[in-house]
Design a protein that fits this description.
single chain; 261 residues; Rossmann fold; 5-stranded mixed beta barrel
Length: 261
């Protein structure tokens, strides 16, 4: 394999067990098998790649992929999806809520992400902002309201550092930059999506409150969030992509390559 195209097409199947032509053009991304299994149960679809690193399920033109955790995996799946040429990719992630107003189960619809993870520096200079596809976020906003729910918006800080909750200096930094939440994937998905010409967005579920010692995620607290809020999170994601499909809406409204500018 000599070309990038040959590599990503081969590796998409190697990682997911699904070939590019079998993948839906509308993609949901997750970090957890629970989302993939719930999707498969809802539509009676099969889970492919259970023996691989990125299990997947597809119904009609929507596929859901558990790409794992962290910015390196986020960059990998966005590179691999370049051979699919998706019309929209929506990340359904969990995040830490950093404001006192945040509660477990709240939804955050990011307007931007800060690239604190480092991975995206291999794709763009540090000063290039990580932004979602606006029309995709608009469709998600509409679908949240259709469920009679509301959401927070703002900026997400994406870090490559998993264990930081003990670091008071880092917490003071997060307060200073006034971010709404923190995760390990959003900025990478936005940036690498842009690099690959893939419209990408995110809807994040507040799963912990890491700025206070009693809010740091535990197995018990995460299980509670999964039981009470994950199904709703997934339903909104599916509904948002269906809205795009049913109304023939396009979210790719930007020119992606330097030579086009």
């Amino acid at each position: 394999m000599k070309t990038r195209e040959e590599i990503v097409e081969n590796w998409l199947y190697r990682y997911t067990g699904v070939r590019a032509e079998e993948m839906g053009k509308y993609i949901l991304l997750t970090n957890f098998n629970q989302y993939v299994n719930l999707f498969a149960q809802k539509f009676g679809s099969i889970v492919q790649g259970s023996d691989r690193v990125m299990p997947t399920s597809t119904h009609e033109n929507i596929s859901i992929i558990n790409f794992g955790m962290g910015s390196a995996n986020a960059a990998t799946i966005m590179d691999l999806l370049s051979c699919v040429k998706p019309k929209a990719v929506l990340f359904l992630g969990k995040c830490g809520g950093l404001k006192k107003i945040n509660r477990l189960g709240d939804l955050i619809l990011p307007i931007a992400a800060i690239r604190g993870e480092g991975t995206s520096n291999d794709y763009f200079p540090p000063e290039v902002p990580a932004l979602p596809a606006f029309n995709l976020q608009k469709a998600v906003s509409t679908n949240i309201r259709n469920h009679n729910l509301d959401y927070w918006t703002g900026t997400i800080y994406t870090t490559n550092r998993r264990v930081w909750e003990h670091d008071n200096d880092f917490k003071e930094y997060l307060k200073k930059i006034r971010v709404m939440g923190i995760d390990m994937e959003t900025a990478t998905i936005f940036s690498v999506g842009f690099y690959n010409g893939i419209p990408a967005g995110a809807l994040l579920l507040v799963s912990d409150q890491p700025m206070i010692s009693t809010g740091v995620k535990t197995e018990e607290s995460d299980k509670l969030v999964s039981q009470n809020f994950v199904n709703m999170h997934l339903e909104i994601g599916i509904g948002s992509l269906k809205e795009l499909i049913n109304h023939g809406l396009t979210v790719k409204h930007l020119k992606f390559h330097y030579e086009d500018l």
